[in-house]
Amino acid sequence: MTRRGAVLVAIIGLHVFIAWALATGLARRAIEVLAPPIQTQIVEEVKKEEAPPPPPPPQFERPPVEIPPPDVTINMPVEENTTAIRVTQTVAKAAPAPVAAPTRRTGLGVGRGFPNTEDYYPEASKRLDEQGVVVVRVCVGPDGKLTEEPTIAKSSGSNRLDGGALKLAKAGSGKYVAATEDGKGVVACATLPIKFQLR
Predict the structure, then answer these.
(1) Strand runs (DSSP E) across the chain, as ranges?
(2) Which residue stretches of the chain are H helix?
(3) How many domains does the chain have?
(4) Measured CA angle at 175 (ends 156, 126), to 5 deg
(5) What is the C-alpha end-to-end distance of the chain, expressed in Å?
(6) Does the predicted TM-score (pTM) go above 0.70?
(7) What is the Cα–Cα distance from 143 to 185, expressed in whole angstroms?
(8) Is position 86 within any domain?
(9) What is the pLDDT of residues 62-102, one digit of tens each?
């Protein structure tokens, strides 16, 4: 027997052995020994139970406040249907007082010989070119003379001019024309504007 024949016999024998092993189930047992069967387990997913949401907070309703109606009693006069004679009182209205005739009045003024403004213009104010109008309040009696010291009703903004205006108002005492009511001289107060202006 040659080498080639021996190899051929070995190959044929191997095939016969494989066929016999398949037929008898030997191959299947050998595979099971070498590689054990895979076991699978079905694991069911456990569902987590979600906690129910908390209940809403209770809503308190305010009980309605009942205010009892006020006890008011109104005494209404009851008209009686009678045929009796009723006495009603009537108040006689007094006649209106007669209206007095309007009083004739004249205002306070300055008369002849009243001092000149230029004579009382302060020299310092002239040098500094100060000008302005001073409003002086004077009170004069029936004789045309001052009854009280004159005062500044509205300043010119310069103390020198205000002082000159007061001196002028005082110097005019006796030269004022008094105010009158129904032709009689009365005490009256008025404002006197004195203007200092450079020429």
Answers:
(1) 105-106, 109-110, 132-140, 151-154, 176-177, 179-181, 184-186, 188-196
(2) 3-24, 26-34, 123-127, 159-171
(3) 2
(4) 35
(5) 172
(6) no
(7) 8
(8) no
(9) 666 666 666 655 555 555 555 544 545 555 566 666 656 66
Give the range of the structural domain holding residue 189, as residue numbers without chain letter: 105-196
CA atoms within 13 A on the CB side of 128: 12
Average pLDDT, the chain: 78
CA 129/CA 52 separation, integer angstroms:
100
Coil/strand/helix, residue 187: coil
Q: Say if 130 falls within a structural domain.
A: yes
**Mean pLDDT of the region 139-164:** 91
Which amino acid is located at 131 in the chain? Q
Could you give phi then psi for residue 7, rounded to 5 degrees? -65, -40
- Tell me if 153 sits within 8 A of 137, measured CB to CB: yes
Confidence of residue 26 (pLDDT cuts 50, 70, 90): low
Q: Note whether residue 48 is domain-resident.
A: no
Residue 80's SS3 state is: coil
Q: Which two tokens stand for residue 40?
A: 């699978």
Copy the structure tokens of residue 124: 């310092």
Residue pointed to by tokens 């009365």: 186
| Model pLDDT, residue 139 | 93
User: Which residue in this structure is represented by tokens 């005062």?
Assistant: 151
For residue 10, tell me if it sits in a domain.
yes
User: Length of the chain, please?
Assistant: 199
